[in-house]
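Task card 7
Instruction: Convert sequence to structure tokens.
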Amino acid sequence: MSSSPSADPGRSPLARVLVGVPLSEPMRDRLRGEHPALVFEFWEDDEGAREIGDADAYVGWQVTGEQVQNAARLRWVQAMSAGVEHFPAETLKERGIVVTNSSGAHAINIGEHVLAMMLAFARQLPLLVREQDQRRWDAHEMRQRVFELEGQTLLVLGAGQIAEAVATRATGFGMRVVGVRRRGDQPSPPGFAEVATFDGLDDLLPTADHVAVCVPLTAATRHMLDARRIGLMKPGAHIFNIGRGAVIDQEALIAALGSGQIAGAGLDVTDPEPLPAESPLWAMPNVLITSHTSGASPRYFDRALAIASDNITRWQTGQPLRNVVDLDQGY
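Output:
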């Protein structure tokens, strides 16, 4: 994922933009004010079941292959999400439609969410909350399990904007942060003491006290943390997933949590979602489940809309777009 490599002064300007997410009237006015030459159409809800019609661009959570095929003028899709695995990549590629996402809009709140889960385990808050529910004042077990983040090593799978937000916050707590990513020809983002390629993942897993999954779900990342790799993790390590549930082999994780190989897991995402009521993860005392809420923030729409509006300006002026998705890679 990147900006376009160069400006495109020959790019045909947009005339109509369809916004397929419910926006407040002030947000609608903001778009109209920033782009007075454009005609905007706004859906009242985000069901996404209607036709895109004659819009040149679509801004929304998702789009179907049928919608793309029926939208003769469509040239650009701006995803309001960071992940695009639910978009019809082959159809979009066949039509030559540019896809950009909202990568970065989630970074602050998800970075805070990961640190909140880490601190919860460090201070044994899940245990203390259960004891509060039982009106029980007994800190003995908590004192046996508590630990400090300072001086520990956090391994982050991914080195994008969310991973960077996690890394800078963890560094603030005195942790050493190591990242792994697909490409090795880019400088290390802020907060990372070291960034390696995924070829070195097996060597890094045994060194980490905590592993944070911050990669999208692609063919290459599905079950990236399988039983073998989970077995390489340091005994007593913690794992956190805010990427996609299927990046981790969930059955292997359940087994490792049950045996104590993994001391705890903070799971914002699971496989499948919603997590079935019969899943043993719900009852495990060393698991935090946050029901895919890490992306929630009262400021999210402001940030995502700012990316979309900036990209509209860039499109109209032939400048490189932000967050262009490589549909072959899936991000």
